Inverse folding.
């Protein structure tokens, strides 16, 4: 295993064992549920938004290391962003995971999940939180304002 692979594995395991932004968000005004029946992954995404910005977000759920690490990394990345910015990041992440495009710097540590595109059964695990984020954007009424949503 290469040094980069080891680093990526370490990032995924760290976010799985000690996820960031995990737990309830009492001030959330948007809540969405997502699940991956083929793997058993589940997530509840809770977002505090003014309709344009993601002021805060947290998640709760259970599942494999990939789904939970992806949720943890995603919440770190999009907190404080506008919905348009968050959905642009979602597009870049999905391109990396689904199409195998090289990770872009804007995705930061999410590059650790870049190898998932080689594991078709794990693509849904990695994108679960991002699909929930897109649902939350719809619920917040932000999709019509966001490019490439």
């Amino acid at each position: 295993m290469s040094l980069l692979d080891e680093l990526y594995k370490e990032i995924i395991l760290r976010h799985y064992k000690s996820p960031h932004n995990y737990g309830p968000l009492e001030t959330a005004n948007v809540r969405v549920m997502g699940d991956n029946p083929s793997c058993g992954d589940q997530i509840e995404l809770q977002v505090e938004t003014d309709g344009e910005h993601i002021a805060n977000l947290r998640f709760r759920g259970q599942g494999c290391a990939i789904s939970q690490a992806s949720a943890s990394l995603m919440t770190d990345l999009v907190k404080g962003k506008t919905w348009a910015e968050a959905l642009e990041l979602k597009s870049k992440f999905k391109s990396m995971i689904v199409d195998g495009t090289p990770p872009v710097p804007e995705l930061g540590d999410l590059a650790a999940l870049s190898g998932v595109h080689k594991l078709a059964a794990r693509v849904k695990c990695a994108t679960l939180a991002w699909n929930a984020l897109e649902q939350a954007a719809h619920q917040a009424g932000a999709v019509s304002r966001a490019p490439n949503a």
